[in-house]
Amino acid sequence: MVEVFLGVLSVLIGYQIYVSFYFGGKKFLDVKNSVAIYTKNCNDLNEHIEELKSTYSYVRSINYGDSHLQDDSRYNMKRRKWSENKNSTWVHNCSSSVVKNANNQPFKYLCKYFDIKSDEEQVSKLEEVLNNFSAAEQGKVLLSNERDRIVSDINSEIPTLVSIFSGKRLIKELGFRDIDLSDLYFPVYTFQYVSPGGNSSSKCVIKLDLRNLEALLSYLGALVKFRKSIAGQRALMTVALRERIKARDNFTCKLCSLSSSTERNLLLEIDHIIPLSKGGVTSEENLQTLCWKCNRTKGAKIL
Ligand SMILES: [Zn+2]
């Protein structure tokens, strides 16, 4: 029995030593270098997705008008600030009847107690959030697929033992950053009641995921009288509209002509030709398909 145990142990230790030597060796370094450009591309997309996820905190923390225009920090600086408070939660302590009412009419109470105005500017901001969150959700899937594709392409050059038993470490050693697949970045609003003694409590949680954001937009859209609306042209951003624009543009970037028919895992985004912040609106004429890189470059220039 003891012999078996010692045998297994020495095999395990032996394997660990072998793996460490392998990852430290020139052979692996060559493989790593051969895909370095793709790894970097994945890491850039990963970072971009994290930026998209932080749109909401940016919307909530900057006042409309002046402070938006005054914010002239360099793109990189701003990026760091965005990711600092990405996971946004708001809690309102209130009576149990407010909790009940909020549960019955979530958006009405959300606007009232968390100061979400029903005006055109707010609608535009939330449209941007919905647009970016949708791209982030798609980006997460495409990025994972792309990473798997790269790893499987080099599979024949990796020792079988390593790919079977050290898959995760292989991904790390190749230089891929972790992909955050969670949906923790969706903003969460909570109405909660706790009795003075703490024995009784209730709460109503409103999570602004894609479905709820879309519903909130249509709720606000019904309340807002749009100034720039030329009859019938103004639409509200929806997940379906994004897909429609992509199909219209043949799933091809309007700037660089990259297409998801040739690059299977290419993240395509929907861009407002005249940005919402410059008075553009969501209408089919003002929307175009861009690949994430072109959209990111355009965004950096405007900021
Ligand atoms: Zn492009």
UniProtKB/TrEMBL annotation:
Transmembrane segments: 6-24
HNH nuclease domain mapped to chain residues: 240-296
Pfam family, any one: HNH
GO molecular function: endonuclease activity; nucleic acid binding; zinc ion binding
Keyword Nuclease part of the UniProt annotation: yes
Keywords, sorted A to Z: Endonuclease, Hydrolase, Membrane, Nuclease, Transmembrane, Transmembrane helix
PANTHER family: SLL1193 PROTEIN (PTHR33877), TYPE IV METHYL-DIRECTED RESTRICTION ENZYME ECOKMCRA (PTHR33877:SF1)
Protein name: HNH endonuclease
Classification of source organism: Bacteria, Pseudomonadati, Pseudomonadota, Betaproteobacteria, Burkholderiales
